[in-house]
Amino acid sequence: xxxIFGPTGxxxxxxxxxxxQLIAKQGGLAVAVxxxxxxxxxxxxxxxxxxxxRQQKLLEHRLISFVPVDEECSAGxxxxxxxxxxxxxxxxxxxxxxxxxxxxxxxxxxxxxxxxPPVPVEVRVAVEAEMQERGAKAVHxxxxxxxxxxxxxxxxxxxxxxxxxRAIGQEPAPDHAGGGExxxxxxxxxxxxxxxxxxxxxLRKRIGAxxxxxxxxxxxxxxxAALDAGASRTARAAIGFAEFLADDPDLAxxxxxxxxxxxMTWMRRMExxxxxxxxxxxxxxxxxxxxxxxxxxxxAGNSPSG
Length: 306
Hints:
It contains 15 helices and eight strands. The chain has 306 residues and is α/β, with parallel strands linked by helices. It folds into two domains: 2-115 and 176-262 and 272-300, P-loop containing nucleotide triphosphate hydrolases (Rossmann fold, 3-Layer(aba) Sandwich); 121-167, no CATH class. The protein is globular. The N and C termini lie close together (12 Å).
């Protein structure tokens, strides 16, 4: 299978659509499987940048907009659903194209990684109250040093998750740099992992334009409606949610840009990933490169990442 991931705003969905159409021209069938932790929520389509009706007509998407906004979706729950979708598609002869920028969800879809146990509701409520009262940076400052080094203080969801696990005597799973297993080493199925990156100035422009489109389309109203519907903690962790509620699209663009930079840094350091530079290339050209890489891996009898 093929996984296309990259920073927010880089255009992963459009490249996946072009790839799906190239495969269709060759008589094959491809279906996208969402690997974004916010695009799973129904009612956050604008804020999450989920594939719209036009895009879904061009390429079918699975695991998108299926969780009520007032529910929480854990990486463990998502992983089980992703495995089932992938296995079903491949048994039918279809090519799953995993698309997303959430590292943990991508890992969950591609591997058999073990997730930490669910956190009791009362612990989540207590941590959420502390986050609201004191802020993510204050909670981050009280984490052990090895966790502070791994988790960015602005990454609200990871800060909260670490605090929750610590409260029940658990440690967050170590990443590769922290002694954990390299997640590309043991994949469930042979896979081509493609990371899209772009020159920082151009990506920042794309993100700015994208956030403007979100604002024009009514992202502020979407955030308010989700809040009125009792949006869960994990849904409210969406980048831009709080900023659109505060009618501050400029800050939303800044938050997206900060996240995108962290995503690109992570991808460029990850072994087993074929990095494609978007700069100066259109969606069809990138999709053609992905197809050629996939065909090369297939003809070689395995994927570049094992």
